[in-house]
Amino acid sequence: MASTTRPEQLTLDGFHRDDLSVPDDLASLFTLDDETCRIGLEHVAEMRRILDGFAASEAA
Fold first, then answer.
1. Which residue has the higher pLDDT, 13 or 55?
2. DSSP secondary structure string, the chain?
3. Is the pLDDT of residue 16 over 60?
4. Is the pTM of this model over 0.70?
5. Measured distance CA(18)–CA(23) in Å, rounded
């Protein structure tokens, strides 16, 4: 049976969001708006391109 976990349900460390708990007084620190998430994903994609380019140059 295939996993039903969608990517947006996972944290960067691969933990399921429902497995994590945050105290109420800290919840606002872990709530990101759509724009912040978009910027973060763009940074991750750029770092991935840089690392892939580095790996390719090392292999050459």
1. 55
2. ------GGGB-TTS-BGGG----GGGGGGG---HHHHHHHHHHHHHHHHHHHHHHHHHH-
3. no
4. no
5. 14
Tell me the two tokens of residue 26. Answer: 């800290």
| Residues 20, 23: Cα–Cα separation, whole Å | 10
How many CB atoms lie under 10 A from the CB of residue 59? Answer: 6
**Tens of pLDDT along 24-44?**
777 777 677 778 878 888 888
Q: How far apart are CA 8 and CA 16, in angstroms?
A: 9
